[in-house]
Amino acid sequence: MSHDLKLKSYWNNRYETGAIWGEDACPSAVLAQECFREHAVRSVLVPGCGYGRNSLYLAQQGFDVVAYDISDIAIAYAAEQAGRQSLPLNYETGSLFDPAFLGEKQFDAIYLSNIIHLFMKEQREQVLDIMTSLLKPGGILAFSVVSIYDTGNYGKGEEVEPNTFMKHKDKLLHCYDEQELDDMLKPHYEFLKKCLHTQVEPDPSGELEELKLWFVAARRK
Ligand SMILES: C[S@@+](CC[C@H](N)C(=O)[O-])C[C@H]1O[C@@H](n2cnc3c(N)ncnc32)[C@H](O)[C@@H]1O
Q1: What is the pLDDT of residues 170-193, one digit of tens each?
Q2: Which has the closest alpha carbon to 165: 185, 151, 180, 144?
Q3: Domain with residues 3-96+104-220, CATH architecture
Q4: pLDDT, tens digit, 9 for 90 and up, residues 87-110
Q5: Where is each Methyltransferase domain found (predicted)?
Q6: Domain segments of the chain: what residues?
Q7: Buried b (16+ CB within 10 A) or exposed e, 73-112
Q8: What is the pTM of this model?
Q9: Which residue puts its alpha carbon closest to atom 1 of ligand 1?
Q10: Nearest CA to ligand 1 atom 10
């Protein structure tokens, strides 16, 4: 099975039971919208939007949102939720690694909630390059990722690459330290905000976990 097909199968399986982390927007989506508002953002891309908890929130805040995910089950759920409201929100099914379906469009901002840490180094770099290409110059990249201060995940399970662990079957988690964030963004971005925050939600086994995440907002140079 190809990498994307494996991801689709894993996530479709997870989403079969619906809104697995609840309907509220993530704390990082609230931080992102504050930053987007400060910088007069209008169009926002939400890659890996899952079943839409954050994309719906951002559209309700008045941003013009395009959101997509590899899981068609999640997108069907998200589109149904949004369909009942009249919002500037479009959903697509598509892969992070093949954004051709978005055409030539570039966005004022991109928001990724708990996406970049799901991959090995080479793919994380690929995702960042693709996101940079989808942002207008001066556009804002906002995201949350797991930190090395997340004691429930850091060091748990097999370490498949430095700071990348397989605690739950078929689900990688890369835990970031501050230096890595700095090195990763330095070539093409300037930081607007970088802070730690907590997000509480069920993990893949159903146990509540207290994620210790970085929130980053950075402007494309
Ligand atoms: C941890 S979940 C986060 C979902 C959503 N951002 C949220 O916070 O509710 C990761 C999401 O990434 C999606 N995903 C994983 N690999 C993907 C890929 N190659 N292309 C697009 N989406 C992908 C999954 O389907 C899943 O919805």
Answers
A1: 899 999 999 999 999 999 999 999
A2: 151
A3: 3-Layer(aba) Sandwich (3.40)
A4: 999 999 999 999 999 999 999 999
A5: 44-139
A6: 3-96+104-220
A7: bbbebbbebbeeeebebebebbbbeebeebeeebbbbbbb
A8: 0.97
A9: 114
A10: 115
